[in-house]
Amino acid sequence: MYQSFVSLYSSLLVLALTHLTLGSDQIPGAPQTKPILIQNAVLHTVSNGTLINHCILLKEGKIAQIEPVIAAQESYEVIDAQGKHVYPGLFDSLSYLGLVEVDSINASIDNAEVGSLNPNVRAATAFNPDSEAIPVARANGVLFSLVSPTGGLVSGRAAVMQLDGWTWEDMTVRADTSMTIQWPRFGGAQGRGRGPRGQRDAESGESESSDRLSPLHEIIRETRAYMKAKVSDPKTSIDMRLEAMIPIVEGKTPVMIVANSLKQIQTAVAFCQLHGLKMILYGGADAAHCSQLLKEANIPVVLSAVYRLPSRRDAAYDSMYALPAKLQTEGIRFSIASEGRFGASGVRNLPYNAAAACGFGLDPEVALRSITLSPAENPRNSHRR
Amino acid sequence: MTSDSPLAANVLRSDTTMHVRLTVSRNRGSASYPSSPMGAVALARQTFLDTQWYDAAMRAYRASPDLPKPESDTALDSIQQHIASGKLFIFDTPNEQYALRADSFAKEFGLKILLKGSGQEYQLMDLISKTGRTFILPVNFPKPPNVGTIEAVLDTELEELMHWEIAPENPARLDRAGVPFVLTSSGLSDPSEFVAQIRKAITRGLDPTKALAAVTTKPAELLGVADQIGKIRPGYWANIIIANGDLWDQKTRIEEVWVRGNRPAAAYKNEKDIDGLWDISILDARTLGEPNKPPFEKFQVSIKDSLKKVAATLLLPPLPEPPAKAPAEDAGKEPAAANDAVAKDAEPKPNETKEEPKKDTHRSIKTTATRWSDLTLNAKTSAKELLANSAADPNPEKSESSDSNVALVSMALIGTGDHPPALVGTIQLPDGTQWTVRGTKAPSDEPKKEDKNNDSKKDKDSKEKELALISTMRYPLASFGLESIPEQPQVLVIQNTILWTGGPAGILRDADMIVRNGKVDAIGIDLPVPEGAQIIDGSKYEVSPGLIDCHSHMATDSGVNEGTQAVTAEVRIGDFINAEDVTIYRQLAGGLTSANILHGSANPIGGQNQVIKLRWGMPYEELKFQGAPAGIKFALGENVKQSNWTDTSRTRYPQSRMGVEQLFRERFNAAREYERNWKQWNLAPKGLPPRRDLELDAIVEILRKERWIHCHSYRQDEILALIRVCDEYGITIGSLQHILEGYKVAEAIAKHGATASSFSDWWAYKLEVYDAIPHNGALMHQQGIVVSFNSDDAELGRHMNHEAAKAVKYGGVDPHSALQFVTLNPAKQLRIDKQVGSLEIGKDADFVLWSGSPLSVRSRCEQTWIDGRKYFDRQTDAQMRIRDAQLHSKLVQKVLESGEASGDRSSLADDPSRLWPNHDEYCHHHHDEQHHEEHE
User: Fold this and answer.
1) In this complex, do A196 and B154 lie within 8 Å of one another by their Cβ atoms?
2) Which chain B residues in 75-94 lie under 8 Å from chain A, judged by CB atoms?
3) Interface pTM (ipTM) of the complex?
4) What is the pTM of this model?
5) Which CATH code fits B275-317+362-450?
6) What fold is seen in the domain A2-88?
7) Across chain A, where does the E strand assignment appear?
8) Would you say residue B326 has pLDDT above 80?
């Protein structure tokens, strides 16, 4: 019955939306039974600018009307939002919500599988609707998240989840929206964490990097071969991993590639072009160093966070704070995520990540967009299954 | 001495120096103490104290033999004798900051020391020269970084480039600064490079006479053998080298080396002489005494790396014209050759005909089992290939000896002085055939060098270019380093601003603040401007006190945890403040001006903390907060009981919160007893003197209220338990750190008088923080507890004001009080609130200019001032970015033009600041990208 949840665009974050906060945090909101009219609000439509002193009418879970004045009817539940702001529900472009509860306790972690190639695993199926992190994130306005597996090379299939509901099925806005791939690292500053470091790339770095990519080339080739085999012999036994890769190879489902360094980004873009894959870049610390490439290949970027340290000792202190503004200037599509640094517990700080970028040149309207509409615009994120 | 005589004869003097290292190897593991440089220094300090005690105890015993005899300890005894006889200690110093620390340590114990340098001394020249110490300087100047690709350039740190450029000047600069030194070959992968490297230092300004003294008379003096060696003088040992010119001239060769009047075999001739190309003639060939004809009369041998893994390659003359026997093969080859010709069409024809046969037919055979020792080259080579030339089809001949296919080569080096060197020897074939061979250095080697000499003009130009430095000095020697300390205007006025005083005055509008000599002098409305004052128009800004972080691990280069033992109260963070950590600058840019640098949470009683001011650009001693009372890190819960360790390493007591509580009592009791013994001794020094114990010293200070506890804590039960223990021992806790369940026992905390330094909203990174709520700060504040928010993190420490704002959001703290969570309150917790934390008359002028409200996430820090000096300014920052980017490009260009091969390891890689973590690796909330990579 809860599958008739409001569509993405109409789910609202309203400070006084009482039926969401009644009772325990963990009891999902009931379906809308009568029209709700919110009056006198500052309405941040994102798609259509900010409307001062406007009314918004909700019917059967959808936005029915937006007008300066909507007359209240007897059957309406009326909320006076004088002095309040109404925003679309915030959307975290990637998190481990529902998959990680307590970082240090293995028993509570379900976001990574063994081995390096796990395209078949699905985040949606392991999403824990009773995670304490969910109502915490929701209380700060985060109503959606792309929930992703991690680890290995091909981590598995991510899903867009709404952050309210009884079961993961209720909460799945769209399953298998993208395939998360952890791009191999190539040494250099990005690879120089604390601890023994400083080993340089071998002079013949070429062979080294192609080695690291070879498992990825291989799985694409295998998938193509598998697809051919299936056509020529319907009795070809099922390979679940390759089966999961088919929509990727067909370019129907995007790959979300986790990459930060210039070389990672360059090789990832080239790889996806070579194989005809639809790519979304996640991480993107060096995105400003290859903006032309990202623009030409039309690749949306998910900045894993704004609160990040510069990736190199010599980089400007605000290089990560100012990165969204740079991408805005360059005309690159981007959204902002809350970074999985604290498992899923830090998702509630998503809005501050976007806001902090405003101090360093990002247009506030774009900042808001980067945590609402922009993530929804990423390929396949927006429509229900 | 390095003669071939038996060892004993070579010893000039033993027990000359004792070696000290104020650090340990990284990755030594957490099993044995010490595992960090901090721990190593603490151990060294305790050892030297023990030596003093041992001496006193032995003297007391000798004076009255009826006392119990102190257990004899040969180690302490030999250290004691070493000190007493005024002998030298050599301290290893991995970088210039470590050199200064070694100097301080030696002063502490009145030791005579030599410092084995790092080659980075020039980076802190003033302080280095003030030590007055003599350095043993390495000349292993760094190889340039790899800047072969754009990504590599992007990843190359300015520091590495600058160090590459300046390092060869280190000896010259030290000399000019009056720092005495000797030179060492230590650190060179090939000791025979020693002379070449010293020559490099000379071309970069080192006085040649000083250079010679630094490898002859000076070391002899230091080691007390100046009456025997170091000079050529009657009565001295005949240790001499003979060179064919000025030793420091690039072209000069060392011809002979004499030790004790003998020529050690290995030093008979510069061994490198065999490196290169040799023309070998086969003088004679005989099988069982019968002469026969070798397949060729001359060939060449190329020898490389004779000092290391020698490699020799035989270069055989061109194959004879193919005989008519194999026409089929020929037919097959021809098209290929034709193709080659087509490919080479672009090249001029005459060259083609000349080069082709050479290139195509010249064959090289690598030797195996090659050895160069005792002036003889021995090797094996393939007889099959060697003889392949003897006939067009070697098969019939080979069939007999195909099993034994190895030819042996043996050639001795002869020729001395005026006689050119020659290789003379034998090549023995499988059938016993012996070729007598003799070789001389191929002339092609020499002309090449002369060719270079002909281009002396070119050389001169490039040399001048090499000598001209692009780098300018700054500290730290890296991006954003300062060329000078920011000046302190005598009088500074900020006018018409919104002033968040952090004090009782609250927020003042249209306010003026006058700063005089680094202190707040006046605050008010429309204050008269003193003459000559520097004026800042404050209407563009809001001004707040400098932010203070009560829990940080930045600016360290010795690890943050000495977690090997449950109690390490003797360890001092202050021994290793790293003024060169860029985190200091990055946090300054977020408005932070002071920080409490704490030991980590690996053990219930950790090390002593150090409060610093973020005086970027000053050497580390200047960062230390003068007047900040002493403190120490305590920790409770999961980290100290090793809950998140692998099961096999969970052996240390305590393993439960029960044990943790008991451990504190045990140590407090021990400290009381220790104190009692000392009191007794001081009143009536009878018997053996008590031994000083640095660990208990620190705990006694806690009991005496001279050292504040800063305790990592999460759960209400452990918080309450610690409070009760401390109540019993009459201790007031300085601050409870993290304290995420403080809201559950706020009354008890308030009653005890502890303060609380919390995270604004971190939670769920481990089980004991699952019940944390973001209202914690506000709730404790409402109970009258002095509450601060801290970072414990290099990133979070860059926006403490955002954290403070969360106290307004979660719990409704008023904005000014919320800002106090990161200004006045942490100052109170560290007991430095008389100097800093608020803008009140008489306090330090530590303040921040914000682009808007300091509590807005959208505001930006524009300027950060400490002691009335502007340490951060967005505009200056923008200029430095350009300065550094330009310098970076120029240095990259210089590396590329130098043609020098890059090293395979960054010269920064072994710097302690890179080796040791500066975050608490025992805390489970550190999951940023960098750490993630470490685990891969």
Assistant:
1) no
2) none
3) 0.92
4) 0.86
5) 2.40.128
6) Urease, subunit C; domain 1 (2.30.40)
7) 12-14, 36-44, 50-59, 62-67, 77-80, 85-88, 90-95, 142-147, 154-162, 172-182, 255-259, 279-283, 301-303, 334-336
8) no
